[in-house]
Design a protein that fits this description.
single chain; alpha+beta; two-stranded antiparallel sheet; 11% helix; globular; binds zinc ion
Length: 92
């Protein structure tokens, strides 16, 4: 099993502790590596078989990030096709 999301992966962005440093992602802002809690780890394990099921996403329509730690995933708009990876959104 390669590159599984584990306790080494940041609670906010999923990047491993090594090489994380300070990172900015849209909706979350600057953050250091943050250990995921048990609930998030079990969510990640359950989501493993769905492609990136646990990952936060950015909704350009609402301008907000949907994240398991920010109230979970809700149907926020009628354009889910515009949703994207918040770690790829450039800083304004
Ligand atoms: Zn992070
Ligand atoms: Zn949306």
């Amino acid at each position: 099993m390669a590159a599984m999301i584990t306790a080494e992966s940041c609670a906010w962005c999923g990047i491993p502790q090594r090489g994380h440093g300070q990172r900015w992602i849209v909706g979350i802002g600057w953050h250091g590596w943050t250990a995921p809690d048990k609930a998030l780890i079990s969510l990640r394990i359950r989501a493993r078989f769905r492609a990136k099921g646990w990952l936060p996403y950015f909704c350009p329509t609402s301008g907000e990030v949907e994240h398991p730690r920010l109230g979970g995933f809700t149907v926020c708009c009628s354009r889910p096709d515009l949703h994207c990876d918040p770690t790829l959104v450039r800083r304004p």
